[in-house]
Amino acid sequence: MRVRxxxxxxxxxxxxxxxxxxxxxxxxxxxxGHHAAVGGQPAWPWPLRLGAxxxxxLVMVGAMMLPxxxxxxxxxxxxxxxxxxxAVARLVFLAGYLAVWTAFAVVALLADRAxxxxxxxxxxxxxxxxxxxxxxxxxxxxxQFSALKDACLTACRNPVEFLFRHYRRGGAWxxxxxxxxxxxxxxxxxxxxxxGAGIASLxxxxxxxxxxxxxxxxxxxxxxxxxxxxxxLVAGVSLTLSALLS
Length: 246
Description:
- This protein is mainly α.
- 81% of the residues lie in helices and 0% in strands.
- It has one domain.
- The protein contains 13 helices and no strands.
């Protein structure tokens, strides 16, 4: 009975479904490459040309971000337990959170298409695929040391303080949006790496998800921020120099 009432279990199940869908998209449906998964098929009707790649981004976001939201959602279940309609309040809170990441998925899809259009039209860049990933890794690595990263990570790592400051009864939607914005502010640069790596890159997805989950939920996860930043910067410099010298 206690397990049934734990919203964290539902989030982990949803994340598992997203991961299963991701593996199926990448491996089970003929192993689509980055262009197939994101760019769509030009022969499809326009709703599918937009909806299918957006769906792929949403599945990826769900797989990577839902596990990081478990502590906050569990704490929200506690503080909203005596509110009128607590189950509805929890769903509204989660809907606000997901609304922010859905907006990110739309922006990421548009950015991804713009980047690939640039690569397709610029032969010099097309023969240096490592340059794009290297540049994104440099951005992600530098962001690890920013004040915004620190502030947003602090908010995500302290559910009690966050909800004490921002949640009032009847304000589940706004609190969910605030948490989504904090989560986005903490993780957007790491998620941006998937534009350079391609959403069909399961190794990058697994690695980045592990980093974000540990950073946001482990007792000393904030100590991982600087080492990850250094690794990303080193990898970015290495890939960029290799691409430029090739």
